[in-house]
């Protein structure tokens, strides 16, 4: 009962803070509404926790609250005591990749043997559809070269952990999702620099070999450590197994906040158009991933998986690459927008599919 009252109070607080923020906006004082706007998203996140249908959006609302705070008060998220917070991005990406590694095992790759067609289609579409869409959108955006290159970068990045969660919610093929994510991530040190060189080389200078080394440092070593951890210690340190997903989510949130603060001025000037282009990039990834898979003969359950794998990118890795390029405030902007947005669209799509089980789902899942 206490929980219900708390969630009801959170709804009331979110409504009040929204109305107060709107009042400030209508009276031309939106620049003063930072605390109210932040409180709106924070209370909305708490309110969502009390609803089964909205619970999945709670983390995204918290990210929006943190992003709002960093837009209003960027000075607190760029530097502390002479230390530039952008220096945290690479370690945070490595923590996320370690978390991915702890959730993997050699058995996950068995799907390559059991369903090679689905894996090959998933991996191929990941590195064909999103880079091509990113290149097209960058060309029509009219953005300055470094920001346009960021749109291509998010397209050239592999899928991330979020796609695995959404595949589960969408009643898709989770083992296939895990395998495609794992393979795309492991070949990213080679594919992402190559694609960036070919597609974004006219926008920014790309040192392909340096990018390969940088991505390897962010992916291969921490994932390898995570795999070893999973092999030797998984289940023996219960609190750590439970903590890693939360730590990964916190790391993603911190990366987005730091990039938002660093690129605040650019984001305020181009924000609406960038959000629109990122939305088109993301949703077209779902659409093309699904229908290309169907045309290539995959069953609906596997096609749902590929759609989510193609449409949902690893924004954390893209942010790390932008940091290594020394262009976090420009090349990193598209990744900062893509992360929260894909969680919203992915959750909506997964919820829609969850209510419509694909043909053969009961037999395939053993339910």
Order of helices and strands: HHHEEHHHHHHHHHHHHHH
Physical arrangement of strands within the biggest beta sheet: 1-2
Regarding CATH, which class of the largest domain?
Answer: Mainly Alpha
| Total domain count | 2
Tell how many strands the DSSP assignment holds.
Answer: 2
Question: Any overview of this molecule?
Answer:
- The protein has 367 residues and is an all-alpha fold.
- The chain has two domains: 1-81, no CATH class; 88-365, Na+/H+ antiporter like fold (Up-down Bundle).
- It is built from 17 helices and two strands.
- Strands 1-2 form a two-stranded antiparallel ribbon.
- Helix 4 (89-102) packs antiparallel against helix 15 and helix 7 (129-141) packs across helix 13 (264-295).
- It starts with a helix and ends with a helix.
- 51% of the residues are buried.
Fold blueprint:
Elements lengths: L1 H25 L7 H15 L9 H15 L6 E2 L2 E2 L4 H14 L7 H5 L1 H11 L2 H13 L3 H12 L4 H9 L4 H27 L7 H26 L4 H25 L1 H32 L4 H12 L3 H10 L8 H22 L6 H5 L2
Helix pairs in contact: 1-2, 2-3, 3-12, 4-11, 4-12, 4-15, 6-10, 6-14, 7-8, 7-13, 8-10, 8-16, 9-10, 9-14, 9-16, 10-11, 10-14, 11-15, 12-16, 13-14, 13-16, 15-16
């Amino acid at each position: 009962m206490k929980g219900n009252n708390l969630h009801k109070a959170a709804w009331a607080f979110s409504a009040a803070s929204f109305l107060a923020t709107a009042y400030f906006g209508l009276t031309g004082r939106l620049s003063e509404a930072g605390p109210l706007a932040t409180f709106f998203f924070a209370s909305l996140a708490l309110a969502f926790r009390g609803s089964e249908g909205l619970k999945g959006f709670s983390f995204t609302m918290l990210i929006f609250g943190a992003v709002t705070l960093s837009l209003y008060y960027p000075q607190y998220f760029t530097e502390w005591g002479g230390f530039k917070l952008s220096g945290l991005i690479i370690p945070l990406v490595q923590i996320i990749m370690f978390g991915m590694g702890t959730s993997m095992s050699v058995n996950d790759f068995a799907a390559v043997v059991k369903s090679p067609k689905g894996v090959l289609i998933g991996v191929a579409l990941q590195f064909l559809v999103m880079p091509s869409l990113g290149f097209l959108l960058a060309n029509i955006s009219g953005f300055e070269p470094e920001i346009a290159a960021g749109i291509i970068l998010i397209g050239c990045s592999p899928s991330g952990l979020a796609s695995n969660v959404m595949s589960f919610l969408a009643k898709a093929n989770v083992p296939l999702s895990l395998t495609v994510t794992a393979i795309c991530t492991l070949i990213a040190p080679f594919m992402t620099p190559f694609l960036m060189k070919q597609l974004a080389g006219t926008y920014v200078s790309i040192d392909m070999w340096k990018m390969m080394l940088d991505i390897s440092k962010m992916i291969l070593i921490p994932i390898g450590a995570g795999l070893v951890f999973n092999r030797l210690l998984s289940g023996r340190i219960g609190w750590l197994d439970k903590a890693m997903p939360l730590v990964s989510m916190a790391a993603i949130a911190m990366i987005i906040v730091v990039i938002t603060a660093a690129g605040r001025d650019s984001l305020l000037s181009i924000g609406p158009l960038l959000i629109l282009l990122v939305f088109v990039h993301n949703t077209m990834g779902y659409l093309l991933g699904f229908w290309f898979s169907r045309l290539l003969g995959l069953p609906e359950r596997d096609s749902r998986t590929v759609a989510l794998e193609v449409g949902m990118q690893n924004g954390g890795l893209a942010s790390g690459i932008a940091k290594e390029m020394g262009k976090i405030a420009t090349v990193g902007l598209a990744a900062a927008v893509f992360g929260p947005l894909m969680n919203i669209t992915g959750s909506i799509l997964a919820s829609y599919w969850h209510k419509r089980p694909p043909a053969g789902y009961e037999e395939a899942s053993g339910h």
